[in-house]
Each structure stands twice: as C-alpha cells, then as structure tokens.
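Hello again,

I reread your note about wanting to compare the complex against the isolated chains. To keep things tidy I'm splitting this into two emails, and this first one only covers the full assembly. Below are the input lines as submitted, including protein chains and any nucleic acid or small-molecule components. They are followed by the predicted structure of everything together. The single-chain runs will come separately.
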Amino acid sequence: MRDKDVHLHTHLSDQDLLLFADGELSVHSANRMREHLAACWTCRARATELEGAIADFVQIHQSRVDGRMPPAAGLRASLRAQLAVAAATAHKSRFRLFSGVFSRQVALACVALLIVAAGVWRMRSGGFRSMGGAFQVQARALPDRTLTPGFTRDVKQADLCGRQHADAPPAVDISTEQIVFKEYGLPVSASKAYELDYLITPELGGANDVRNLWPEPYTSTAWNAHVKDELENRLHEMVCNGQIDLSTAQNEIATDWIAAYKLHFHTDSPLPNPENRTASRINHASAWLVALQLPRLSVFGLRPASNR
Amino acid sequence: MTDSNQDSTISLPLPAMASATLPAVHSEIEAEVVSLFDQFQDRLFGYVLSFGLTVHDAEDIVQETFLSLFRHLQLGRSRRNLRGWVFRVGHNLALKRRSANQASGINVAYDEIATAHSCPGPSAEEQIAFSQRQKRLLAVLQALPEQDQRCLSLRAEGLKYREIAEILGISLGGVSMSLARSLARLTRSEGRE
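Full-complex prediction:
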C-alpha cells in the first residue's frame, strides 16, 4: 500500500482511518496514525463510528447467507464427482496424444498408476467410504446424507401440479449413474438388487443431480422403492391439495422418508400390497441393470446342458 | 561428459517416467482443488448471493468456478493468488447469470431475504426497532452504486484491497475511496435517527 503522509495536526480522513484499521498501510504510516489516534479523541470517535458501520454491513451481509448455505459435504461430493469426470476426459485426450509416441506397455502403466493413485487419494481423503469394510447390501433404505443430501430444482407448487404427467422424469445419463454407484462403493455384482432413485422425486421438484440420487434397494428391505413410491404419490397429492408446503414435503422426504411414510400413512410398517406405481422410476437405470445381468443368465443357461 | 554404461541405463527409462507421472499430477490437482474449495466455497457462496441470485444459482456458480480452477491448474497456468482468481471467476459468472436471469424476468429481492431473518432479541419492542433499523440500512446499501456494493461484499469476505482491485478492475485508491464513501453513508443514516 502506498505510504500516507499523515499530518498530526489535522484530523484523519475516513479513508486513512479505514486503511489503518484494515492493515493496508506501511509500518511507517501505521505508526504515525497510531500516534495521532493516541492523541486525538475526535478521530478515535470517528474510527468507532466507522467500525459500527462495518458491523452493520457485516450483519446484513450475513443475513443473506444465514440458513441458505447448503451443507458443504454435499457440495464437495458433487464437485469431486465432476472433477473425476473432468480428469477422466482429460486423461483420455492425453492418452491419445501420447499413444503415438510411447509404447502400449507404457500407456498401460499410466492407467495402472492412475487407478492406484486414485485409490490412495480416496483412502487418504476419506472421500469415498467402504473401501475396507464389507458392503452391506441390505442396509441402504435410507441414503448416506453426506453423499445424497437431496437437491431440488427451482420450481413452485404450481409448476408441479396442474398439468398431469406432462413432464416425464428426466433421464439420468450413464456417467451420472456410474458416479453414484461408485460413490456408494457398490460393486457391479451387487447392482441387480438396486435401482438408481431420486431422493426427492422429480414430481416434488427433485433435481437430476448426483446429490439427489442414490442406489435404493429394490426388494431387500421392507422399506423399498415400491413403498417410497406410495409416499411420493401421497405427498404429491397433499402438495397439490395445499395440505402441505412444497418445501416441507421436500424436507420430509430428504431428511427421513421412512419417518415421513409412518407419519402420513399412520403406520409403523409399510402397508401390504402396495400398487406397482413406478412413474417416477428411472427406466434407463433398470435397462442398464438388466443388460449387466444378461451375461450371468447365459452362464446359468449353459450349466444344465453341460450336466447332461 | 562421461559416456559410461551406467549413464545410458539411467537415461533410457526417462521418457517412460515422464509420461507415467502425468496421471499422478491429475490426482494432485484434484486434491488441491478440493482443498481450495473447502477453504473458500462458503465465502464465494456469500459473495455470489450478494448479487441477488438464488441459492441454486449460487451453488451452480461455486461448482463451475472450482471446475474452471481445475482446468486452469491442469493447463499449468499461473498459481499466483488463487483466492483472488477464484473470486474473479465467480464474480464474472455471477454477473453473467444475473443478466441472463434479468433477461428471462427472474429476480430476487434483497428486502425479503434480509427481513425474513430477524435476530432473536430479548423483547418484542427491541426486535421491531432492530428490524426497522435493518430496513433503513438496507435501503442505504441498495442506493449505493453497484461497484461500491461489490467492494463492501468482497471486503466482508476477507479480501485484501489489492485483490478487490484486481477482481473489479479498478485502482487500489479506488477501492479505499469506495469503501470509505459507503461506510460514511451508513454512519450518516444512523445519525438521522
């Protein structure tokens, strides 16, 4: 900061007082200011007024953010996922660049190193879970809040009611899907028991975003995807009838959908024979999972033949 | 220069090693970006909200900023003052988003936001007095030129004058004059009580 020539016999300007308080002056200028302030009550009173204005501004600035800041963990998870995609595509383009120059073995070594490095980084940073422990296939009726806090589109009640089923649920692209399964540490072999589900359903304003998607067990728990469908339909009805706020409904389903089900269906366990309403399911995900099962089915089909 | 056997065996694998370190660099940059994100995301979020954008927009912009940072570092560009860089990119993205929103008729009023969060005071009377004062200060703030509002917000997020000057593309003296002018206005509005 430029050196200020402080005149000890005239009062300090607001600008000087602020530069001093903000630590933007050179040591020499700051010392001169300090000397002046020690002697001058008028300038000290003015400095206090300015501090008061700063406090006022900070309060207003804070009130814009208070309560509106989304959980950092969710944002971080989403950023990491996007970085992983960005790094993968960047690596691919470099790979092409170098493949003409270096041998295939070297290229393969690069890939191996990338995988090892990514693994080490993940374990060290704790960004992804269940690297060590066995993955519990049955215990995911509720999503991991840090990975799937729920995320909404910017919509109002009127946008979601009125036109009946005008909007089909947005298709989730393969890369998003793979990111979610990977984040949950799900092995491909376990994926048949799951389907990629929105935590906050699109009918309630849920977004097509990794923060709003998790692999939900299809049938392995009593609280499965079919049961959640029932709740989603009930909440959608209630929102459109004005019985419940849209934001309250979103919050209930994102926080603990099982508790919300118990509340709205007045029961402690899922009601029997829920209708198979799968409007909000992601057909794309199911298709992908079916495709993965096909090779396994053909192996089973061979076995009786070889026994004969 | 010695042309011994040892030298030639050492120099042979060099190109392979150079290429093998590339992926490691990627994951290092990734880790660095995440660490910078942890340091600055809440501040950037607060600054972006001060443009009168929605939470959704602010989140998008924060994410976009750090993705750009990743690409910036990946290309081996300057690492000088990355905090300033992050705010400059966030600032530009916020401006762009706001003008896009204005073009499509989306607007967020500050008044609703600030008055919705009333501070819990000991008595109802004090609360009313508090919110009236808040409203008056808000009116003063909103009457300030855009540039002065940005200066205040950036300073409130802890940036140095030099960084603010770079982000807004103004001189160092311009920053200190703007801040002093705005704060003087706020103190004057108090004197009128």
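For quick reference: The longest helix of chain B spans residues 14-49.

B.
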